[in-house]
Amino acid sequence: MVLRIALQLYSLRHELQKSFEHILKEVTNIGFDGVEFAGLYGREPDKVREILYKLGLEVAGSHTPINALIKSELEKTIALNIALGNKYIIIPGLPEELRRTKSDWIKFSELLNGIASKLAQYGMKVGYHNHRIEFIAVEGERPWDIVFSSTSKDVIMQLDIGHALAAQISNDEIIDIIKRYRGRVTTIHAKDYSKKKALELENIEKGYEVVIGEGEARWIDIIEALRDFGGTEWIIIEQETYPYQPPIESIKRSFKFISNILKTL
After folding, report:
1. What is the widest separation between alpha-carbon atoms in the chain?
2. Which end of the chain lies in a sparser environment, N or C, as judged by fewer CB atoms within 10 Å?
3. Residue-range definition of the domain harbouring residue 51
4. The pLDDT value given to residue 2
5. Phi, psi torsion values for 133, nearest 5 degrees
6. How far apart are CA 5 and CA 237, in angstroms?
7. Whole-angstrom Cα distance, residue 252 to residue 69?
8. Hey, which bits of the chain come out as E strands?
9. Contact (CB, 8 A) for 144 and 130
10. Distance CA 250, CA 57 (A)
11. How do beta strands 125-129 and 155-160 pair?
């Protein structure tokens, strides 16, 4: 499996609102193969697709809220993603009222299976993305394990490395998750995390204030596991904080780090 690098465009959300096409051109110039969306910034999907085609960027996925995948909204979402040229629809998290109990997570897993079945006829897949809460046990079981032990292989696991580390999941366990659910980690979010920085500043959020390679993720081992077991197509960089300014500079550094690893594998 050839691993390619995309950017979650939420990383440049403020810049995209001001100069959409210019920023996408900068992303191309850095060397990214694709982009993942979290909204289209008021633009029509077919127009966005034209811009991407012109720049040579592919669509690596789109973060889509759960309410856009329920009942009549699902057909609208399918049509939008067909126009965009996207086949991976990723739910970025659940509102609190839908994730309080183990039963809630089981119901969500059943919903995912139903969505996956409907999307399959369009050549699309649905997935779920973790924050920290998916690794905090509910009634003795972690939501992440409830979801991926209860869903079909057609449901993508989008593992966010930074959030997993922030939830006290070790590098070894991250690699074990990739192996345990082999073939399902179609896309990942590459984000680093520094537990040392979080402890020093006594603030869990401060641990995210690093670029890739400056935190505690063992990226070579993780990427090797993704290549050998994950069935991974896209390594999607998400840079939500900017230790280096302007924000595009932090993104360049994260891209360079991951790109250099891929060149050695």
Report:
1. 51
2. C
3. 4-264
4. 87
5. -65, -25
6. 7
7. 34
8. 4-8, 34-37, 58-63, 88-91, 125-129, 155-160, 187-190, 234-237
9. yes
10. 20
11. parallel
Beta-bridged to residue 36, according to DSSP, are: 8, 61
What DSSP element (H or E) covers 220?
helix 219-225
Q: In whole angstroms, give the CA distance from residue 188 to residue 88.
A: 12
The 8-class DSSP code of residue 228 comes to I
Distance from the first to the final alpha carbon of the chain? 12
Parallel, antiparallel, or unpaired: how do β-strands 125-129 and 4-8 relate? unpaired
Residue 222: the pLDDT is 98
Query: Given the structure tokens 């204030």, which residue do they identify?
Result: 209
Question: 228 is written with which tokens?
Answer: 């050998």
pLDDT given at position 235: 98
Measured CA distances, 249 to 56, 121, 216, 234 (Å): 22, 41, 21, 21
Distance of alpha carbon 128 from the chain centroid: 8
Work out how many domains the chain is built from and give that number: 1
CATH of residue 142 = 3.20.20.150
| Residues ≥6 apart with Cβ < 8 Å to 103 | none
For the chain, 265 residues long, the average pLDDT of each consecutive 10-residue run is: 94 96 98 97 96 98 97 95 98 96 98 98 98 97 98 97 98 98 97 96 96 98 98 97 97 98 94
How far apart, in whole angstroms, are the C-alpha atoms of residue 80 and residue 57? 18
Distance from C-alpha of 136 to C-alpha of 230, rounded to nearest angstrom: 23
As a dihedral over the C-alpha atoms of residue 39, residue 118, residue 184, residue 149, rounded to 10 degrees, the angle is: 110
What pLDDT is recorded for position 135?
98
- Compute φ and ψ for 34, nearest 5 degrees: -160, 180
Distance of alpha carbon 129 from alpha carbon 93, whole angstroms: 6
